[in-house]
Amino acid sequence: MRRAGRVGPAARRLRGWVTATVRRFGLPIAFVLAGFLGGLGYAVFAPTTYTATAFVLVVEARQGQSGPAAVSFAQAFGRLAPLPETLAYSSLPLPDGENGSTREHIQASTSPDTPLIKLAGSGRTAGDAAAFANAAADALVRYGTSHRSDTGVRVALMTLAEPPAAPSSPNLPLGVAVGTASGILLAGLAAAVMSGRRERAGRRERGRVPSAGGTAAIPGPVPTGRVEVGS
Fold this sequence. Notes:
Layout: H1 2-45, E1 50-60, H2 68-80, H3 84-87, H4 102-105, E2 106-110, E3 116-123, H5 126-146, H6 148-151, E4 153-159, H7 172-208
Antiparallel strand pairs: 1-3, 1-4, 2-3
C-alpha cells in the first residue's frame, strides 16, 4: 500500500507533464513525426531505379583535338541526345516494356568548358539502365558521323556504361533525412504561429486585469467620489 501511494503522485506528475507538453508542442511534434514517416514510406515503397553512365567526346575533325567549336557542338549534341530522332541512329536496341518517354530514361549533361557529354540512362533494372545509356551514346556517335561534313567535328565514344551494382534510388537514409527535415521546417513554422497567437492572447488578457490600485482597466470616465444632489 505504501508503494502504491508513492507511485500515485509521481504518476500524476508525469501524466501532467506529458499533457502539458502535448498541449504546447503537440502540433510541431506531429509535423516532425509525419515528415519522418513520409520519408521512410517513400524510401521503402518507391519503385527501385538504377542509373548507368556513358561518355562521348566531341573533337575537331581536322585537328583531332578540342576547341571552341567542339565545345559549342558538344552542348548542341547534348540537347539532341534524348530525342527519338537522334536515338533512331543507334544500332543498339532500347529496352522493351519501359514506361514513359525516352526523356525520362536518358539524361544528357555537358560542360561549358569541356566538349564532353555525359549520358545517364535510368531503368527499373541495372541492365536496362546500361542499355539506355549505351544506346544513346551509340546513336550520338553515329549521328555526329553522319553530319561530320557539315559540322566539322567528330563525336567519339569514350566509355560505355556498365550495369550498376546498386540502385540509385530510393535511398533510405536520404529519404528519411529529407522527410524529417521537411517535418522540422513545418514544425518551426507552426511553433512560430502558435507563439504569436499566445502573445496576442496574453496581451488581451493583460488588458482585462485590474490595475495595481485595485481599479479595473476599463475605458471610460473615472468616478470622482462626489455625488451631485439636485436642487
